Structures are given as structure tokens and as C-alpha cells.
Amino acid sequence: MPTKGEKPGKGTYKCKKCGKEITLDSADDALPNCPVCNHTEWDKLN
User: Disulfide-capable partner of 15 in 10, 20, 29, 31 (CB 3.0 to 4.6 Å)?
Assistant: First the structure.
């Protein structure tokens, strides 16, 4: 399970708490806190 600050690679990630989806466009992008609920754990969708 990717968490805040990790650089898990390009793709779409879904917040484990509220379901907000974000997309990382670069392998150098780090996961943020969720912009909706401030949660730090994500599931990779693709």
C-alpha cells in the first residue's frame, strides 16, 4: 500500500479513506496527503 511521500510511479491512486482519486504523471512525483480528507494511504488503480 503506497503512502504519503513515496514515489510509487505513474498511475492513478485512490484514497483508502474517502475514495478521492489522484494521478501521478511522473515517476519522480511523490504521493501527497489526500486533498479532501488529509489521509496518507493510497491504493493503486492502474
Answer: 20
Q: Which tens digit of pLDDT belongs to each residue from 1-46?
A: 899 999 999 999 999 999 999 999 999 999 999 999 999 999 999 8
Parallel, antiparallel or unpaired: strands 11-15 and 42-44:
antiparallel
Buried b or exposed e, range 7-42, using 16+ CB within 10 angstroms: ebeebebebbeeeeebebeeeeeebeebeeeeebeb
Tell me the three cell numbers of residue 16. 483508502
Distance, in Å, from the CA atom of 21 to the CA atom of 13, rounded to the nearest integer, reads: 6
